[in-house]
Specification:
By secondary structure, this protein is α/β, with parallel strands linked by helices. It has two domains: 1-56, no CATH class; 58-121, no CATH class. The protein is 31% helix and 25% strand. The chain has three helices and six strands. Strand 4 (86-92) and strand 5 form a beta hairpin. Helix 1 packs antiparallel against helix 2 (23-38). The longest helix is centred in the first third of the chain and has 16 residues, at 23-38. It binds zinc ion. The site of zinc ion (ZN) has 9 residues, from loops.
Length: 121
């Protein structure tokens, strides 16, 4: 079976040829190897062409804050309606416990993948 581009690149990175490369050249090879590990070269070319032909669109949304106080921050995605990852913890005081829940507002919705740049669809 013929080797893939990724396998050839990994071979180069592990060979003596690599000893003559600068650190930046090695990083460039590693970056390309990582990239085609996610998505093969042919597919990347198709995606790049589709993007160039304006056949790709980025789903955009925003985090909508439902509730915000010292103890909690609740939000949902304006596209899928689901809540982001939340950090939950308890704070113990003198005979009482206060539960905190804080939404972690990431750049992309972990549920639907929308880019959270404030523009709603
Ligand atoms: Zn979403």
């Amino acid at each position: 079976m013929e080797k893939t581009y990724k396998e050839y690149l990994e071979e180069i990175l592990c060979s003596k040829v690599c000893d003559d490369l600068t650190e930046s050249q090695k990083q460039a090879l590693e970056a390309v190897t990582e990239l085609i590990g996610f998505c093969d070269y042919e597919r990347l070319c198709e995606l790049a062409k589709a993007d160039k032909d304006k056949r790709c669109s980025v789903m955009r949304a925003t985090w909508v804050i439902d509730k915000e106080s010292k103890h909690e921050k609740i939000a949902h995605c304006s596209h899928c309606g689901k809540r982001p990852v939340e950090k939950k913890y308890a704070v113990r005081g003198n005979g009482y416990v206060i539960y905190h829940c804080h939404a972690i507002l990431t750049d992309f919705c972990p549920n639907c993948g929308a880019k959270m740049d404030g523009e709603t669809k």
